[in-house]
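Need tokens for this chain, all 96 residues.
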Amino acid sequence: MLLTAIVITQILDPLRILLVGIAYFLSRLVKRQGMGWLGLLAAIVVIAAGFPFAIIGQSGDIAWTTAAIGLISNALIVAALAGLLRLQRRLFQLFV
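Here are the structure tokens for all 96 residues:
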């Protein structure tokens, strides 16, 4: 139950959503093929690893556990953003 609570807390964190959203939309602006996904992956890892240490101020095993779970949370946020963007495009094509 503890891991589920950590994932839900991280997914609903507005600062994490903002940082991952900025990384996602910046990755869409990259012109070189494949480099956008590489940059997004790096941003997901940096946000997941840096968040517990720098923002929350945790240390030790709990920080590493939170960082590992943060990878899952960030990936879920990116998947939700990508899905919403795809849905918006389809609806826009449908009505225009």
